[in-house]
Amino acid sequence: MPTPIDNAMRSKNAVLAFSALVTGAVVWTLWGGDIFPSEPDPTGDPENWTREELRRWLAARLAQSLDRPLFPWKKLIIGFSVAQYAFEELLSLRQYQVLKNTKPPKVLQQEVSQEVYDKSQEYGRAKAKFGFIKGLWGQVQNIAFIHFDVLPKLWSWTGDLLLRFAPARFTGEISHSIAFVLTFIVIQQVLSLPMNVYHTFVLEEKFGFNKQTPKLFVTDMIKSNLLAFVFAPPILAGFLSIVQKTGTQFFYYLWMFTAGLQVFMITVYPIVILPLFNKLSPLEEGKLKSETEALAKKLNFPLHELFVIDGSKRSAHSNAYFFGLPWKKHIVIYDTLIEKSKEEEVVAVLAHELGHWKLGHTTSLFGISQVHVFYIFALFSVFINNKSLYTDFGFINEHPIIIGFILFSDILAPMDAVIKLLMNVMSRRFEFQADAFARNLGYKAELAASLIKLQIQNLSTMDADWMYASYHFSHPILSERLKALEWTPSERVTEEGSGAEKATGREL
């Protein structure tokens, strides 16, 4: 008799097959033609159709084939969600068995004491259990929202509020959609609050990692919501206006809008958003600053400013990263990284990060993200007028664009899981390349020492099931990175008795 996991896996395969079929059809139908065609639907002899006319005819047929009256979209989306959850929990179960190991990987046995390794394994198991409960809570929410028709009820309620309290000019679809999304954000915040509180003040507190006070936690939550309330309305208004005014080819314009928005956010983030949560101070004069500037000059990195960020006020997270426009970059170093590392180890970390820039990884990832965004919007153009989808979810007389996009995102989730897997494969390859770049600059020992220290301070996973790592990890595990660096332990790089203190929120 097949087990629930067997059934879930078969459902997963069906989901992926369906998604691949739809995606392939859309890519085919969208291939070629003018960028902004405006010709009417093709007429006359099909043998005389242009390539663009054929493309639009195929797109229309695909949309029609997916719009079937009484099609059980609710059951399909719930099935997608449950199958993906079951698949991911199966991977977590495999990883949980690895977290029961009692000995560290051979390459780390000289560096990691039994006490630290045991605590790392305990921390990993605690996070795995929490992840299971959090995922289950998310599934309960999702199924409840669908079963009890929360979306149409919330849409109707926010519409009634606008009719009662807002001026007439603010009662159209765009204003209604903004009110709906902001209300939805608040609801999601409330529903996720218990899990966030437990993670910060119970799980992280138990292992000595939390430095947030309840006041800071609440303040951060308020600031995050205020940012959402400031940025979401104009972004959503732009999104909906483009769809409303540009016809069936809206996805081209929407794609350009999103690309421009990304550039805008890169510019605004360090000026407006980052200072709300952290303080950036110029790096003081000294050996670290001079060596960093020399490294940037050697690599022709367009360094504009060097900052130290006060990450220690929330946790012992530490890292270094860069941001900015192509011609004007800023490097940010966590105060905890400077505190816990030797200066040459900090420079080694920066060599790794600048390796991503020099090797074109950031440009490649940005380009891939643009292709992904275009693919999402192009596929959405097939679903946007799907009456059966709206009807099955309780939207009989209204077909709001934002609702269609939310439901479409649920349908697309399985294919996004595949894309996540492929992106992780590429990301791990990039990490190996950045490590090799730092090694070739002469920072082999320093980078290895820094990676080991961060691993121990963070109680990071020291070993992993290969399937779990392939699906979830964007970075190789430490033993793989040390092997690729051709590092062999000659002397202990961590102090005897050094314990865990969380050191990284964003991995190297």
From TrEMBL:
Annotated protein name in UniProt: Ste24 endopeptidase
Q: How is the cofactor bound?
A: Binds 1 zinc ion per subunit.
Q: Which GO terms describe its cellular component?
A: endoplasmic reticulum membrane
Annotated membrane topology: Multi-pass membrane protein
Q: What Pfam families does the entry give? A: Peptidase_M48, Peptidase_M48_N
The entry assigns this protein to a family as follows: Belongs to the peptidase M48A family.
Location relative to the cell = Endoplasmic reticulum membrane
A GO MF label: metal ion binding
* Domain (Peptidase M48) ranges: 282-486
> Known catalysed reaction(s)?
Hydrolyzes the peptide bond -P2-(S-farnesyl or geranylgeranyl)C-P1'-P2'-P3'-COOH where P1' and P2' are amino acids with aliphatic side chains and P3' is any C-terminal residue
Record key words, sorted: Endoplasmic reticulum, Hydrolase, Membrane, Metal-binding, Metalloprotease, Protease, Transmembrane, Transmembrane helix, Zinc
What does this protein need as cofactor? Answer: Zn(2+)
Active site as annotated:
353, 435 (proton donor)
| Highest taxon in the source lineage | Eukaryota
Where in this chain does the record put each CAAX prenyl protease 1 N-terminal domain?
95-279
One Gene Ontology term of the biological-process aspect is:
CAAX-box protein processing
Cite the source lineage.
Eukaryota, Fungi, Dikarya, Ascomycota, Pezizomycotina
Q: Where does Zn(2+) bind?
A: 352, 356, 431
List the transmembrane segments.
178-203, 224-244, 250-277, 365-384, 399-419
Q: Which organism is it from?
A: Monosporascus ibericus
